[in-house]
UniProtKB/TrEMBL annotation:
<keyword id="KW-0472">Membrane</keyword>
<dbReference type="InterPro" id="IPR050833">
    <property type="entry name" value="Poly_Biosynth_Transport"/>
</dbReference>
<keyword id="KW-1133">Transmembrane helix</keyword>
<protein>
    <submittedName>
        <fullName>O-antigen/teichoic acid export membrane protein</fullName>
    </submittedName>
</protein>
<keyword id="KW-1003">Cell membrane</keyword>
<dbReference type="GO" id="GO:0005886">
    <property type="term" value="C:plasma membrane"/>
</dbReference>
<keyword id="KW-0812">Transmembrane</keyword>
Length: 410
């Protein structure tokens, strides 16, 4: 049986993500919430630091498939060569800051390991985001599928590090796996060009990408609000207790994340070719139907979560109810894949309204529910607020997607 590249890419993405989940779950079975909480706290700044690139990779991810659809290969290469040199500069600065913070701020071997691992995560994030934006043709998606498969296998082979060395082994695993994954992306990169800074191309990329970055940031950053609330008003141990809930959210994000990497460049390529907005709405309805069926199937996990946590992750027995709530939140978050349509159309005004609405909902509802209830059920109340906020936010997004895809040409 011969599978299309979209199917192969989706399967490889799922395999990579499930291997990451397996690593996380194994770590939870060995490591207590206090140390997991320390690691999660170290990564809170990660989404904020991506802002430093000023939307370079977002602009690149939109413009490459768009100009490929218009068959403008020379311009595509200029975009890639420019982004390559800028990304290299960001990476070098990130590595330097990591070294300084590790030796001047961190105390003790484990804290230094957390700083180094988090620093490598952020440094490779710049490179990975840039390279991932360049995989846009059919042949490049085949190569990216290979990268995902190799990366997943390597990650699974490194699991014994956790078993033998506990938290330190987990840090070593994350560090080594992150570096190897980036090396694979570099080796299979579709554009092997000399780096060249091009001021006009750089400004054009930022002009397109910065609004996308700002609006994507505005929409996604509320997901850090609950973590900040938990750290400041409860404890890092309580943050560690949310690890099973985070695993559930990750599970529901597997397929949408895999599909988005193929869905976004594909619809942008097609839009560059025909300029038809309504065709995007038809694609939205098709994807929404698939997500509904898959999400409903995923809700079956509600029946096994209590048993799984109590028997396999007893250190997280207090997290049963918030994990079940996370399943509902994850189901709704699956629809975030549709947000890419705003980027394809450069519908910045609608994006702002959707992002701002989600921001306000995430800031107010979980906080109000936390302060109104007894502190014994504080985590449950916070996650209940997140579920309500995500439901309203999803409805608002779909409404505005309908609006931007039904604009008639004058």
């Amino acid at each position: 049986m011969k599978f299309g590249i979209g199917t192969v890419f989706t399967i490889s993405s799922l395999f990579k993500t499930f291997s990451g989940m397996a690593i996380s779950l194994f770590a939870l079975s060995i490591i207590g919430p206090e140390k997991i909480g320390l690691w999660h706290a170290a990564l809170i700044l990660k989404p904020y630091l991506g802002f430093a690139q000023l939307g370079l990779t977002e602009g690149l991810g939109r413009e490459l498939p768009f100009y490929m659809g218009k068959n403008r290969g020379a311009k595509v290469k200029r975009y890639v060569a420019n982004a390559q040199i800028v990304t290299l500069m960001y990476t070098l600065v990130s590595i330097l800051l990591t070294l300084l913070l590790t030796f001047l701020v961190a105390e003790g071997i484990e804290e230094k390991m957390v700083f180094v691992t988090a620093g490598v995560f952020i440094s490779t994030m710049f490179v990975d985001n840039y390279l991932s934006s360049t995989y846009r043709s059919t042949s490049s998606f085949q190569d990216l599928s290979r990268v995902y498969i190799y990366s997943a296998i390597i990650g699974l082979l490194l699991i014994p590090l956790i078993y033998y060395y506990d938290f330190r082994g987990y840090m070593w695993l994350l560090l080594v796996h992150s570096l190897i994954s980036t090396i694979l992306l570099v080796y299979f990169r579709p554009f092997k060009l000399k780096s060249k800074f091009d001021k006009l191309i750089y400004m054009a990329t930022v002009k397109t990408g910065f609004p996308m970055l700002a609006l994507n940031f505005l929409r996604s950053i509320p997901e850090t609000y609950p973590k900040i609330l938990i750290i400041f008003f409860i404890s890092t141990t309580a943050l560690g207790l949310t690890a099973p809930a985070n695993a559930a959210l990750m599970a529901f994000g597997v397929l949408p994340a895999a599909l988005a990497k193929y869905f976004y460049p594909t619809i942008t390529y097609q839009y560059g070719k025909d300029g038809n907005r309504y065709n995007l709405w038809l694609k939205i309805k098709q994807i929404s139907g698939y997500l509904l069926l898959l999400g409903l199937a995923g809700l079956i996990s509600l029946t096994i979560i209590p048993y799984a946590i109590e028997n396999f992750f007893p250190k997280y027995a207090e997290a049963v109810y918030i994990t079940m709530l996370a399943v509902g939140i994850g189901f709704l978050r699956m629809y975030s894949i549709l947000y890419n349509v705003f980027n394809t159309l450069k519908s910045y005004r609608a994006q702002f309204k959707v992002s701002m609405t989600r921001n306000i909902l995430y800031l107010i509802i979980p906080s109000v529910m936390y302060f109104m209830d007894s502190k014994e059920d504080s985590l449950v109340m916070i996650f209940s607020g997140l579920l309500i906020a995500e439901f309203i936010s999803t409805l608002v997004m779909i409404y505005f997607l309908y609006q931007v895809t039904h604009i008639k040409k004058s």
